[in-house]
Amino acid sequence: EESVWKLCEDVNKRHPTQLQHCHIVFVSNDQRTVPLIAKVVVLESQLNVLFQDYHVLFLYNPDDRCLVYDLDSELPFPTHFHKYVTETFRTDHILKPEYFRYFRVVPAPLFLQHFASDRRHMKRADGSWIHPPPNYPSISN
Q1: Is 0.70 surpassed by the pTM of this model?
Q2: Phi and psi (nearest 5°) for 136?
Q3: Closest by CA position to 41, among listed 50, 53, 32
Q4: Which residues are CB-neighbours of 135 under 8 A, at least 6 positions away?
């Protein structure tokens, strides 16, 4: 989510009039196990599924088209919304109910104004980093 915040910040600095056309999407569920189809492997019946506790996307919708900027996707950057949803989320009909996803859509200006991260979710119980944190200070507004 910090990298998406940085993307918002960049749009706001370079193209401030376009920020009104941008939204941030948080994807999660009660069990914090969100399935994302990373890619289709050789046979259509074999899918490479990645489970995450949550995922964050950047949407740009200036007119009748909508582009998804997903910094962790193997799809082209950006990808048209329909292609992204079709290839990344597929359908809930193939999922167990505990894997159904919830989507929270936040206007980018609000996200920029109110988002903060203390990076607690990036640490193990013993306080060590799961992955090294970004080289910039944590975001606080």
Answers
A1: yes
A2: -110, 160
A3: 50
A4: none
